[in-house]
Amino acid sequence: xxxxxxxxxxxxxxxxxxxxxxxxxxxxxxxxxxxxxxxxxxxxxxxxxxxxxxxxxxxxxxxxxxxxxxxxxxxxxxxxxxxxxxxxxxxxxxxxxxxxxxxxxxxxxxxxxxxxxxxxxxxxxxxxxxxxxxxxxxxxxxxxxxxxxxxxxxxxxxxxxxxxxxxxxxxxxxxxxxxxxxxxxxxxxxxxxxxxxxxxxxxxxxxxxxxxxxxxxxxxxxxxxxxxxxxxxxxxxxxxxxxxxxxxxxxxxxxxxxxxxxxxxxxxxxxxxxxxxxxxxxxxxxxxxxxxxxxxxxxxxxxxxxxxxxxxxxxxxxxxxxxxxxxxxxxxxxxxxxxxxxxxxxxxxxxxxxxxxxxxxxxxxxxxxxxxxxxxxxxxxxxxxxxxxxxxxxxxxxxxxxxxxxxxxxxxxxxxxxxxxxxxxxxxxxxxxxxxxxxxxxxxxxxxxxxxxxxxxxxxxxxxxxxxxxxxxxxxxxxxxxxxxxxxxxxxxxxxxxxxxxxxxxxxxxxxxxxxxxxxxxxxxxxxxxxxxxxxxxxxxxxxxxxxxxxxxxxxxxxxxxxxxxxxxxxxxxxxxxxxxxxxxxxxxxxxxxxxxxxxxxxxxxxxxxxxxxxxxxxxxx
Length: 622
Known about the structure:
Strand content: 5-15%
CATH architecture of the largest domain: 2-Layer Sandwich
Largest sheet: 4 strands, antiparallel
Radius of gyration: 29 Å
CATH superfamily of the largest domain: Beta Polymerase, domain 2
Number of helices: 24
């Protein structure tokens, strides 16, 4: 092969999907190509014009517009146009104009179809475009080994190992204990009126509520059972069971269908499928009395995250599990604080904001939290108590591994430790006077979730926030303006725009330029439509029911969010495996050509949805 032909084949090997073809096929392609130069401004193709070649841009760039003149895309080095013509009997679909002097390789239509027919990966790439291609790429990444069922793909119904064991509510403790022994089970459902679930009794109840308290075995089982037990549905995933057990510190879950119990699952059922280190970590945290000891458990989070990702967890799964651990540490510290300083003089609720509030934490998280106090709070009488409690918890979280918020958005800051009436004033002001600082605060405090305390304190405040923000076009327009300051790292020709200079030179900021823009979009659609959930996935799923965003747009954005988030997590896992501290700065060359192509697709989806957001709520629409 001549040097010139080798140089062309080397170029093709650097770009998707040619990099998926066998080497001998790529090496043979240069002889099939024709090179053409086009001057800036040349219209290369028009709708219905005959197009008998796939055009591969070597240098320069093009602009694609539909027959009505709407801009569809700008393409640069390594990208192709004339694709639609290959699937329309050689008839171009759009206007293609050169944006600068360009060198283009032309692959004959016959060779294109030969490759597409012989190599499915090549055909797949060109058949799928935009969000659809990203979605198909996600499906490829989500394929699992059928011989190694993962926790995230197993249904609860598949975990039920035996017939349900239950006893009538009129039974005695002795009768219940004998039945458990005979059936060799660690729990019993207590039923009434035939099959109505009244409660649950476990082996722990026998130890802690009978033996430890020297109760009579003749007492009714109702004296020691847990009424109205937490349950799960048969169509939920084993992952959901894991989270439910972890959050509520239980080891047994009745499986309910149409109001009737059909089975029981336990931690042992799950342990037979996959290690439940997260459940054990939470259990250990709940028994600890010192932040320094909790720190040893939380120090295992990077390894846990690494195992989750390698086991096939989605970023949504991983975020829930990792956040559950920070929730557990927070709750335990609050329990210890109340033991240390006494019971609270007035009711309160501890709130998590930011990524913890959204249940989207990664291996790298700081604190975002606040205290909402009952309106009976009096600063002179109660101020010292809640200052001590907040300092204890925030300092403890820092010791545990959740560092102080750089912006001091924590309950230990007096401004964020206030009664309901003050919080109402805060939100009223932020919504009615959306100054730059207010918009920054909204990105944290509009994502609140209760962690510990009297949750009803937050409920009325939350309803007020949702009602006031819903349909407030001026406020939403300012929120949009603030959201659009987060630019996706994609240039004019769909090339990556990387960080320049400093410690993270030539990297992509996957958090602020990838994750945050989608979080912003989801938050705005939620506020605009009165959606009260705060998790980004749940917000986008709920927004599909409203006209502010198309179902297709929301679906594309969900795929983009998952792809960007999982790519970010995999980057952090690689750093963890290398013994480095995880961060959000990714070198594109560490990705495969497949991943780079789909990352560009994901960024393109965000860019399109940012434009749609501006059209729907921007200042021009007020």
